[in-house]
Specification:
- By secondary structure, the chain is α/β, with parallel strands linked by helices.
- It has 2 domains: 243 residues, QueA-like (3-Layer(aba) Sandwich); 74 residues, Thrombin, subunit H.
- Helices cover 21% and strands 29% of the residues.
- The protein contains 8 helices and 17 strands.
Length: 341
């Protein structure tokens, strides 16, 4: 397939710059083949059934953006890609001139890091003390590039899911931002169960596809973990005839990455995935997908087209634009039925 197959016109004013006043009051477009239905996200319990299982990504967004200066005095912007160990991290560096290995960067007027070797588009950084502690104490929340403002106080909570636990992402798993504690309680009361995976979202989530033949695109690798408790919950859901609903593309990629490793069987474990899901992919785990609206020509849009069907996604996005849905991280959501079921 060609990159142009995943383009669509989007008025810039539909790109959400702020979250909704309440998490669960966002809109929800249900896409079941050619059938489209407009709902509100807090209607989700009525759209699912007792015995269904929601699988969510419990990663937590790091304060991954830091500003500082080089020894020469030049300004530098650091975006942490991942904490590697107690004293080191991988990061993207933005400066007028790339620093040399051994250079020290003074960050946020608080501490210095040493630049190590370049690894592709990332650099190793070595910290004087615990890297996670320093990043969380002095860094800034890294809002996506299409949100045209700096992070403010309310972003500290609204750009995290209410169930975020494990630090490691540079971007939120945004499908989960629509859930609040009240909605989670109503889902449980309706007999809908919850389970969790962890996938730490990397900066590659915003990497554009630069090739016309999408098969030539290569994804960044991201860390995932699938607990035994979640494997057991999915097996129990299947046994009772319930459905598995992946909350977010990161959750979907975690489940499908594990299944690919074991010939379709889910097993608890952890690893790295660079799985690129495009139309024609054979899904093995999820029956439905909750996800936000994605950028034109993006790998995430390609994933949703693979899941719900390209023609149906094209129609859904045209409907969403016409009905003035809000797009991207702080925007509205979709509930997608798998097209091959």
């Amino acid at each position: 397939m060609r990159l142009a197959d995943f383009d669509y016109p989007l008025p810039p004013e539909l790109i959400a710059q702020q979250p909704t006043a309440e998490r669960a009051r966002s809109r929800l477009l249900v896409v079941q083949g050619a059938t489209l239905a407009d709902h509100r996200f807090d209607e989700l319990p009525a759209l699912l059934a007792a015995g269904d299982l929601l699988v969510m990504n419990d990663t937590r967004v790091l304060h991954a953006r830091l500003y500082g200066r080089k020894e020469s005095g030049g300004r530098v912007e650091v975006l942490i890609e991942r904490i590697v160990d107690e004293r080191s991290a991988l990061a993207q560096l933005r400066a007028s001139k790339s620093p040399r290995p051994g250079t020290r960067l003074w960050l946020e007027d608080a501490f210095a890091v040493e630049v190590g070797e370049r690894q592709g588009e990332f650099w190793s950084l070595y910290f004087p003390d615990d890297a996670l502690t320093l990043v969380e104490r002095h860094g800034r929340l890294p809002l996506p590039p299409y949100i045209d403002r700096d992070a403010v106080k309310y972003d500290e909570t609204r750009y995290q899911t209410v169930y975020a636990r494990h630090y490691g992402s540079v971007a939120a798993p945004t499908a989960g931002l629509h859930f609040d504690e009240a909605l989670l309680g109503r889902l449980r009361a309706a007999g809908i169960e919850l389970a969790f995976v962890t996938l730490h979202v990397g900066a590659g989530t915003f990497q554009p596809v630069r090739v016309d033949d999408i098969r030539a695109h290569r994804m960044h690798s991201e860390r995932w973990a699938l607990p035994q408790q979640t494997v057991d919950a999915i097996a129990a859901t299947r046994a009772r005839g319930g459905r598995v609903i992946a909350v977010g593309t990161t959750t979907l990629r975690t489940l499908e990455s594990s299944a690919l490793l074991h010939d379709g069987e889910l097993r608890a474990g952890s690893g790295e995935t660079d799985l690129f899901i495009t139309p024609g992919f054979r899904f093995r785990v999820a029956d439905l997908l909750i996800t936000n609206f994605h950028l034109p020509k993006s790998t995430l849009l390609m994933l949703t087209a693979a899941f719900a069907g390209l023609t149906f996604i094209q129609a859904a996005y045209a409907h969403a634009v016409a009905q003035r849905y809000r797009f991207f991280s702080y925007g509205d959501a979709t509930l997608l039925y798998r097209h091959d079921l």
